[in-house]
Amino acid sequence: MNGALSISGSNGVRLGRDHTQAAMSALTDLLSGRIEMSQFRERHEAIPKKQSLTMLVNDKCNLSCRHCYLQTDGLSRTQLNVGEWTTIIDSAAEHGVSLFVLAGKEPLTGSVGPCLVEHLGDLRRQTDIRTGMITNGTLLDRHQTRIENANFSYIDISMEGDHVDNDAIRGEGAFAAARPNVEWATRLLDERLFITMTLQKENIVRFPSAIEAFGQLGVKSVGASSYIPLPYTDPALALSQGQLQSFFHGLDALGQLTLDHDMCVQIDVGTLAPDTLVAFMESDWFDMDSMEVDLSGFLYAGYRFCNGLSLHFRFVPWPLSISSSCRISLDGHLLAVEDSLQPRLYGRHTLCNVRDFDFDFSTSYQHALTNLRLRAIDATYEKEVLPRLRKAYRASNSRSTHRRQAITA
Ligand code: SF4
After folding, report:
1. 8-state DSSP, 233
2. Closest residue by CA, ligand 1 atom 2
3. Which of 51, 52, 91, 344 would suit a FRET pair with 15, their CA atoms being 20 to 30 Å apart?
4. Which GO terms describe its molecular function (predicted)?
5. Closest CA to ligand 1's atom 6
6. Which atom of ligand 1 is closest in space to residue 198's alpha carbon?
7. Facing residues of 270 across strands?
8. DSSP for 2-13?
9. Residue of 106, 182, 237 with the most ligand 1 atoms within 8 Å of its CB, for mutation
10. What is the pLDDT of residues 129-153, one digit of tens each?
């Protein structure tokens, strides 16, 4: 798995008009420098939002991708078992969590993930929760009946492009192993099956041809987020600011693709990858006035090309913290989104451990909200990222026109 946020987490439903205005006004005030982060947090928290929970159910994977941020030994001392996970899930559903995402490393290795696929399916039949899974796709054929019965709201399969680009990152044979499962999952889920790409030096220049290759597998939905280098991942994959600028500039090429069917491409721009965020705000795709807000409080801008391809940007230029999305590690640490990319520091960054609260999500979450780590995340953002965003925002306001015409939902 890659990235800290499931790419297809939006339920496609937008916030009501008053809440949208409140969210936009808080953000423009923050980016304009009229308010500081603590005031933004106060105003943003007052807006009712849907909450999601991502669960890291194991530390095993059958691939060894060069960019994998979970590529580290000894993620856990004592892993949560199926009964403990189901207690967490059930209590989180009662707490009001509306989206549950299974992740791993690879959630379909071992026995815990497959059991939770069944449990989430049962819960989904009884409640209106949404469910998702992030997988490398190579093991889906072993669990087809379970997955069919679970009726996932969506599944993200991570791939890096056509077989050449994919295997250069994920290892020889990874594309061939995933391909029949992608085709099966597309038939099962249609547009609810997402291919998720990690943009990096080796695949970013062929992004349009990757979309075309996925389309030829029957895929209708693709998500992309940027590679975030870590001390133990491959530094040669890092993107330069110039490459990111060229990437956004070159997205018009998506409109020239020959497609057999309509496709939707969503690009994630958030504070975990500040360089990508800045490059997006400097591009002429960025226009705050044309954005919409979904029920998670995330901003979206959408554009449609004549060839049937819709291009969406998910714009989240503030630290997510745990307000709309949080994560529980395989040994029970409740973590902010910002800390999920550093598994070696989970023990230090933990907001609390659900074991200490009898695996009850609600009491764990209430305790986590008081942890000073959340203030530290906001303070780091205010010092290191926000000044760049404010500069990019000022520059965007001084551009007299935006040549893009956004679509609205
Ligand atoms: S498939 Fe995902 S979890 Fe497995 S090695 Fe690759 S990036 Fe890591």
Report:
1. S
2. 1
3. 91
4. catalytic activity; iron-sulfur cluster binding; metal ion binding
5. 65
6. 7
7. 316
8. -SSS-TT---SP
9. 106
10. 999 999 999 999 999 999 999 999 9
Question: Among 6, 69, 70, which is best to mutate for testing ligand 1, by the most ligand atoms less than 8 A from CB?
Answer: 70
Where do we find the tokens 């970013």?
Answer: 204
Q: Is the pLDDT of residue 52 over 80?
A: yes
DSSP-derived letter for residue 238 is P
- DSSP structure string for 68-83: -TT--S---SS---HH
Domains and CATH numbers, the chain: 17-398 (3.20.20.70)
User: What Å distances lie between residue 209 and 74, 222, 311, 321, 368, CA to CA?
Assistant: 37, 13, 15, 35, 43
Q: Which atom of ligand 1 is nearest to the CA of 134?
A: 2
Extract the runs of DSSP E, i.e. beta strands, from 220-340: 221-226, 263-270, 292-293, 299-304, 309-316, 325-328, 333-336
* 258 CA → ligand 1 middle, Å: 30
Task: Give the residue, out of 2, 60, 66, 195, with the most ligand 1 atoms within 8 A of its beta carbon, to mutate for a pocket test.
Answer: 2
- Specify the pLDDT at position 126: 96
Neighbouring residues of 400: CB distance < 8 A, sequence distance ≥ 6: none
Compute how many other C-beta atoms are within 10 angstroms of the C-beta atom of residue 306.
Answer: 7
For residue 168, report the distance from its CA to the centre of ligand 1, in Å: 13
Q: What are phi and psi of 187, to 5 degrees?
A: -65, -35
Ligand 1 atom with least separation from CA of 2 = 7
Which atom, in ligand 1's list, is nearest to the CA of 136?
1
User: What is the distance in A from the centroid of ligand 1 to the CA of 104?
Assistant: 8
* Dist. CA 62–CA 142, nearest whole Å: 14
